[in-house]
Design brief:
About 70% of the residues lie in helices and about 10% in strands. By secondary structure, the protein is mostly helical. Strands 1-2 form a two-stranded antiparallel ribbon. The radius of gyration is 31 Å and the shape is rod-shaped. The protein starts with a helix and ends with a strand.
């Protein structure tokens, strides 16, 4: 066989291995539903084509063996992931599930009503002070939204083990909402 033909086959093998790697990643992430077996068989066919033949060019021989070992490593990784999926222990699915459950905590209607009641007195005090100063207070919805943003920024900065209290302070320049942060009592 000519070195030119071997070089073309080895370059094709390299491209197909990279494409196969990407296809398997898509498969494991759930982007595609079918394992890319046809492409895998094409790669195996190219590897077997030169498994029994002598490649005289040292550079091409090295590249072929390097690609073969890379494919075998990928194949081990893919087989391990397939086995984990069959056992229901796919690590990517577990991470995705944990991210969904922690990222979107469900808030019940009772909790929303409770939050509104917590902020209602604070809003009354805030709007009274602003009215006394001759300023227009924001809507109650906007105030509650702002308080929730403040509370979430405090939680992101200090973690979930803190409690926040808000207090209205009248200053020379206007009205301040003072935030007090303390550790939750166990």
């Amino acid at each position: 066989m000519a070195d030119n033909e071997i070089k073309q086959d080895i370059d094709e093998l390299e491209r197909k291995i990279e494409r196969l790697k990407h296809e398997y990643e898509k498969f494991f992430l759930g982007i595609i539903n079918v394992e890319p077996l046809q492409l895998k068989n094409e790669v195996v066919r190219l590897i077997r084509k030169y498994a029994t033949k002598q490649i005289n060019n040292v550079m091409l021989n090295f590249k072929y063996k390097n690609l073969t070992s890379r494919f075998l490593l990928y194949q081990e990784y893919w087989n391990r992931n397939l086995r984990l999926i069959e056992e229901g222990k796919n690590p990517k699915e577990i991470i995705r599930y944990q991210a969904k459950t922690t990222a979107t905590p469900s808030i019940t209607k009772e909790e929303k009503v409770e939050k509104r009641a917590d902020y209602k007195d604070l809003y009354q005090e805030y709007s009274n002070v602003l009215t006394k100063k001759g300023q227009n207070p924001p809507s109650e919805e906007a105030f509650i939204k702002k308080m929730e943003e403040l509370k979430s920024s405090v939680k992101s900065k200090y973690g979930d083990n803190v409690e926040t209290d808000f207090k209205i302070e009248e200053t020379d320049k206007g009205v301040k909402i003072k935030t007090t942060v303390r550790k939750k009592s166990s």
